[in-house]
Amino acid sequence: MNSQSAPPGGDGRDPGRGEASAQSEPSTARDRVAAGLPPQPSPAGSAPRQPADPSRAGAPKGILGLAAEISRLATMQANVPAAGVARDGVKSDAAAPIGKRGDLPLPGPSTSGKVVAAAPSSATAPSDMPASASPGRVGLGAGEPEPPIPARPDGMAGSYMEPRRIAPRSPRAALEPDHVPAPSRPSRRARNPLVIVGNAVFTALVLVLLVAGAAVVFGKSQFEAPGPLQEDKVVTIPPRLGMLEIADLLKHEGVVDAHRLIFVGGVFALKARSELKAGEYLFPKGASMKDVVETIVEGKAVQHQLTIPEGLTSEQIVARLLDNDILAGNIKDVPREGSLLPDGYHFHRGFTREQMIQRMRQAQERLVRDVWERRNPDLPLKSPEQLVILASIIEKETGKPEERTRIAAVLTNRLKQKMKLQSDPTIIYGLVFGKGALGHPLTKSEIAQPTPYNTYVIDGLPPGPIANPGRASIEAAASPARTKELYFVADGTGGHAFAESYEQHMKNVARLRAIEHEQKGEAPAADAQPPASPPRASPVLTPLQRAKRSANGAAKGTAAPAQ
After folding, report:
1. Residue 167 CB: number of other CB atoms within 10 A?
2. How far is the C-alpha of 81 from the C-alpha of 6, rounded, in Å?
3. DSSP state of 417
4. CA-to-CA distance for 327 and 349, rounded, in angstroms?
5. Between the CA of residue 174 and those of 83, 166, 169, 483, what are the distances in Å?
6. Is residue 134 within 8 Å of 156, Cβ to Cβ?
7. What are phi and psi of 267, to 5 degrees?
8. Beta partners for 282?
9. What contacts 206, CB < 8 A, 6 or more positions away?
10. Cα–Cα separations (whole angstroms), residue 388 to 120, 311, 337, 462, 478
């Protein structure tokens, strides 16, 4: 405490205190006030402070005085109308009107708009305590001038905070913030063009992946869903069609009802773009698009069958192929006689006739090569071609399948004994060269007409096959039965009667004639009797024997005459 400090004046204020507080630096004033010391006296020449309010000259001291002062200030504040509100909501002293003379002057407004009052340290102060020992005021900001601290006659000094007045606002305005911070600018790195482009590309990729995933899920469900077919249907897909054309064709035929892009996507998913095959396909009822694509990829086309009977000539086989409307294309040349294997062949629509010819030729070559390797070693044959020639004669002479080996034995035995084969089918082939049937029974002149194929005239085998033999006839020619038979004649039941001697053969012929006359109700002709002994020259057949020779060259109802 400073014992040299002057007592307070009659108005309760220190005359030099306000000036010293205004001139000193804010930090020093705050420190002295906080330490309970009086502010430094104002220097000489300072402006005099305003005179104190004369109405407060006779105010009581102590607690009663403080209470009276507070009551007075409250009455004054209630009577003063609001003139303005500071930015932070505190009543501004500058805007408030000045009260009547004698009111206590209040501190001026600070630059920061904030006022903090320091409470007195005790309710009363001793009479001998100087006014400078009263509690000081605490400043709010460094560098701000501190307002003057009024002094009271009772030795108590202090500053009073003006009550905070809040202007009434609407509920919507009350919810709005008083201060909205300005948006911060993005960093320089975020404004980099490469970053912007990268973000755009990444976003686009994410969107593309999402769309692609959704498309895959939807397409898969459509690809595996049952189709609209109400019953089985056959659809032909032409060659050289693309995926989109195939999809349009299937939709037009009512096999599928989904978009063609789903068909294309399914083909790519199965990696079958280059495996779609043309053909005729049978799609079952309710087949899904997946089943349809797998059927086309695996080539499960509708199979058609073509059966070529044994014993047909190459001309006749070509005619049958041309009559088939499922096969495609044309045939350039008639194949060589005996080069085709009669059999049943399966094929799909669009298979060409040339392909069928090639297929039959390859099958014949494999069969002949295999059979020739397994032939009997004592055969009077020199090549596989001779095997086919002999098999073609066997094929045309056979009436029943079980007789093939016996007929093969008769022809083989005659070849071994250098006898003429005397086969009627060879005469007919020499006359028409495989272009069809003769159309009438053989005549005497036709039998005696020399041709390269007439085995009544030539010795041994003809120069080529007279038909396309089947597998059984080729097998029989390579492995004939072990017999000594040289003759055979029809027995009237579709089969033949075989004989080793000419006498037995003539008996078989007479039995056949009797059966035929009984069927016709006619007497046998006189010239139909066979000679008593076998002729040495090529025999001339009786009219009955010639009449039994069929127009197609099969001598299945006649005897094979011996030389």
Report:
1. 9
2. 39
3. T
4. 6
5. 21, 11, 6, 130
6. yes
7. -65, -45
8. 234
9. none
10. 144, 12, 10, 11, 9
Q: Which residues of 211-227 are buried (b: 16+ CB within 10 A; e: fewer)?
A: eeeeeeeebeebbebeb
* Termini Cα distance of the chain: 176
Tell me how far apart the alpha carbons of residues 545 and 171 are, in angstroms, rounded to a whole number: 133
CA dist., res. 12 & res. 21, Å (int): 17
Nearest 5°: the CA angle 296, 298, 302 is 65
Match 């109802």 to its residue by tokens: 557
Please answer whether residues 318 and 282 qualify as being in contact, where contact means their C-beta atoms are separated by less than 8 angstroms.
Answer: no
Distance CA 311, CA 397 (A): 10
Q: Encoding tokens for residue 358?
A: 């090639």
Q: Is 446 left (phi over 0), alpha (psi -120 to 50) or beta?
A: alpha
Are the C-beta atoms of residues 11 and 157 closer than 8 Å to each other? Answer: no
Task: Give the torsion through C-alpha atoms of 470, 476, 477, 479, to 10 deg.
Answer: 140
Cα(222)–Cα(251) distance, rounded to whole angstroms?
A: 14
Provide long-range contacts, Cβ within 8 A and 24+ apart, for 532-537. 533/502, 534/502, 534/562, 534/563, 535/563, 536/563, 537/563
Answer whether 476's CB lies under 8 Å from 408's CB: yes
Give Cα 504 distance to the centre of its chain: 80
Instruction: For residue 272, give the amino acid letter.
Output: A
How is residue 255 written in tokens? 């096999």
**How far apart are alpha carbons 199 and 192 in whole angstroms?**
11
Owner of token pair 């690809």: 223
Rounded Cα–Cα distance for residues 202 and 322 (Å)? 65
Query: For residue 150, what are its two tokens?
Result: 């009024």
pLDDT, tens digit only, all 563 positions of the chain: 444 444 444 444 444 444 444 444 555 556 665 566 655 555 544 444 544 454 555 555 566 767 777 877 777 766 655 444 444 444 444 444 444 444 444 444 444 444 444 444 434 434 444 444 444 444 444 444 555 555 454 544 444 455 566 667 777 777 777 777 777 776 666 667 887 888 888 899 999 998 888 877 887 788 788 888 888 888 888 888 888 898 899 988 888 888 888 888 888 887 777 778 888 888 988 888 888 888 888 878 888 999 999 999 999 999 999 999 999 899 999 999 999 999 999 998 878 999 999 999 999 999 999 999 999 999 999 999 999 999 999 999 988 899 999 999 999 999 999 999 989 899 999 998 877 777 788 888 888 888 999 999 999 999 999 999 999 999 999 999 999 999 888 888 888 888 888 888 899 888 888 887 787 765 554 444 444 344 433 333 333 343 334 333 333 433 444 33
pTM of the model: 0.55
279-283 and 233-237 beta bridge pairing: antiparallel
Nearest to 444 by CA among 363, 505, 527: 527
